Amino acid sequence: SPSVAPGVAFQYSYDFRVPGDKIEGVQDEHAAACETLGLSRCQITGLNFSQSENGYPEGRMEFLLDPAIARKFGRDAIASVEKAEGVLTTSNVSGENVGAEIASSQVRSAGMEAEVKRIEERLAGKGLANDERVELRRRAEELRDMMGGEKETRRNGEKRIATTPVQFNYSGNMGIGGSGAFGDALSASTDSMTSMLGLLLMLAGVVLPWLLPIGAVVLFVKSPLGAGLRRWWGRNTPLADEPAK
């Protein structure tokens, strides 16, 4: 939190598993909690809900929060998910020491400002050649542009420290009448049946190329043409102990 690590820009991410038919309701509850805090402390920056082809719904919400309340907002969100028979599966907090970057930028800007001041003092003096005066002015302008870039860097860093991004990711069970243990069992059963069907199709692909010619031979042997061929073969093929004519 800001009181523990001042100058650190934090990012929070939570992954929730929620019954598929309750994701939208949980999202509405989280949106209402943000709106209650007011725009100065919480803003919704992204919202998504989708139903995949295999029937599993997914959702996402993104917020910008006052750093002082970001952790509490996450805890309250977890409580509302659990109330909807969901669970927290993953949470992640990452931080970047933006305050140190701002301090380094201030040091660089101070050095450039001092150099610009020295250049202006030389330009105010007499006895400079025209080419030297042009070069000094070019250098001073270059330093001022660099100082402007450093100022923008600090401004962006201060914004990152002043607001904390929080992201909620929601994944749900297939929405066929169930949630919780029943939904999990249904999901596991569906996955098992899909795997078995895939195995059977693979075996069929290996065996069928051999069964087709064998079946064709069997059908030919049992056909009238095959029976006539067997009789002809029996009449014209001498036995082992019978001399050939």
Question: Can you summarize this structure?
Answer:
This protein folds into three domains: 8-98 and 162-178; 99-160; 191-236, no CATH class. Helix content is 59%, strand content 20%. The protein has helices at 23-37, 70-83, 98-124, 130-162, 180-222, 224-236; strands spanning 8-18, 42-51, 57-65, 87-97, 164-172.
Question: How would you characterize this protein structure?
Answer:
By secondary structure, the chain is α+β, with helices and mostly antiparallel strands. It folds into three domains: 108 residues; 62 residues; 46 residues, no CATH class. Helix content is 59%, strand content 20%. Strands 2-3-5-1-4 form a five-stranded mixed sheet. A hairpin with a 5-residue loop joins strand 2 and strand 3.
Oligomer: single chain
Low-pLDDT runs: 175-182
- Large-scale geometry: elongated
How many domains, in number, for the residues? 3
Can you give the mean pLDDT? 83
- Helical stretch count? 6
Distance between the termini: 108 Å
Number of strands: 5
Please outline the major beta sheet: 5 strands, mixed
Rg, please? Answer: 38 Å
- The H/E string reads EHEEHEHHEHH
* Class by SSE composition: alpha+beta
Strand order, largest beta sheet: 2-3-5-1-4
Proportion of β residues? 15-25%
